[in-house]
Design goal:
Number of strands: 7
Largest sheet: 7 strands, mixed
GO molecular function, one term: methyltransferase activity
Shape: globular
Organism: Tenacibaculum polynesiense
Radius of gyration: 17 Å
Strand order of the largest sheet: 3-2-1-4-5-7-6
Protein name: Methyltransferase domain-containing protein
Keywords: Methyltransferase, Transferase
Length: 219
């Protein structure tokens, strides 16, 4: 199937900020195609019982029970810029059958509405491209992370992303050198940098080899 320039621009916009019925559909696709990235990111945090966990850019939140099924008494907070995804998350969590304490909030994409030292673990998958002020966000992450807390940032390789026709000006892509420079400009400490490769169906329905990275940061 061929996609017009308008189709690709519309998809790019929805990926950065899902809106309306189309946004719901795109988010369902993302939840499926990104599931391994999501689960591997949460696994890298080694979440323990009764910890406080934040996910930035949770989408429709259909993955929450899966990634937290082995822990008990966890307080999970989801944070979104998309009102559509916020509403979808609130609908989806009704069916969860775990002893999770769940909260979902909206924010402006820069400033986090939390007190200092609020979370043991923080995850964000495929949001890094859309951070308008990445240095400010990293400082905010440091502020709200508890002492000895961990952050997992997951994103696809710059080389891979540049091959995708729907990736345009709304995306800020990073190679390893660029991301390490960004991290080094923050008060956070790099704990690990791991790369992965998988075969997936992309947002246009094509089978591709995706390379992605998970960075774990410590306070």
């Amino acid at each position: 199937m061929k996609f017009s320039k308008e189709d690709l621009l519309a998809l790019e916009s929805q990926l950065s900020h899902p809106t309306g019925t189309k946004g719901i559909s795109v988010a369902e696709n993302m939840a499926t195609s990104n599931l391994s990235m999501i689960t591997t990111s949460f696994e890298s945090l080694n979440i323990q019982d009764k910890e406080t966990v934040l996910e930035i850019g949770h989408g429709n939140a259909s993955h929450v029970q899966k990634v937290l099924q082995k822990v008990k008494g966890v307080s999970f907070t989801g944070l979104e810029i998309s009102k559509t995804m916020h509403k979808e998350a609130l609908k989806n969590i009704v069916s969860l059958k775990n002893d999770l304490e769940l909260t979902f909030k909206l924010y402006n994409g820069v400033n986090f509405p939390f007190e200092n030292n609020s979370f043991d673990k923080i995850a964000s998958i495929n949001t890094l491209y859309f951070w308008k002020q990445p240095k400010v966000i990293l400082n905010e992450l440091y502020r709200i992370l508890k002492s000895k807390g961990k952050i997992a940032l997951c994103y696809a390789d710059k080389d891979f992303m540049e091959t995708l026709p729907f990736v345009g000006s709304k995306f800020r892509l990073y190679d390893k050198e660029e991301i390490l420079k960004l991290i080094n400009s923050s008060p956070l400490q790099l704990a690990s940098f791991k790369s992965f490769e998988e075969t997936v169906k992309n947002k246009l329905g094509e089978i591709v080899q995706r390379n992605y990275n998970i960075i774990v940061l410590n306070k």
